[in-house]
SRPBCC family protein
Amino acid sequence: MENKPIIVDSSFSAVINAPIEKINIPEWCFTLPEHEYQACSPAHVAAGVTTSPDGKRMSINVEILGGNPMVQHYIETVSEPAHLILESVSDVFTPTGRVTILVHWEMSVKKIDDTTCEFTNRVISRPTEDFMKGLEKQGIPFELFKIQRQPVSIYHNQSETPLFAKSIERHALR
């Protein structure tokens, strides 16, 4: 995935008012009720959990970003209480058809003091070959698409990060 060009790489942080010892990001992610996922962004439509063909946990998220519905199939690749990395080949439904993009979603916490942590939410998206062919068919240069897509994706990450932090905090303190 690293050799593909980047569409968006955004990272935002927020404070969690809970001791790091009580935080378990994978547990939060894979038990997150749908209504709580929806409360973290107006773009969030649905969330569920299943397993990948090789038996790894998978979070299925549906969002609408920039008017385009997306179905994300996040498979855990790193799973530690303070660090979760999920990888997805996500479906994007555009006016000209369905394409896929690669999404790397990384969440982590680091201790600030005995009662607070800093939560970081990082999302990196990259095009698949399928996606590049779709842009080519429409005569859209990749750089133009990237420039248009970044504000929507960056705003989405920026606005959901403090709400995810509050949700993780509630989960840790219950």
User: Anything to note?
Assistant: The CA atoms of residues 36 and 167 lie 7 Å apart. Helices lie at 25-29, 34-39, 129-138, 142-173.
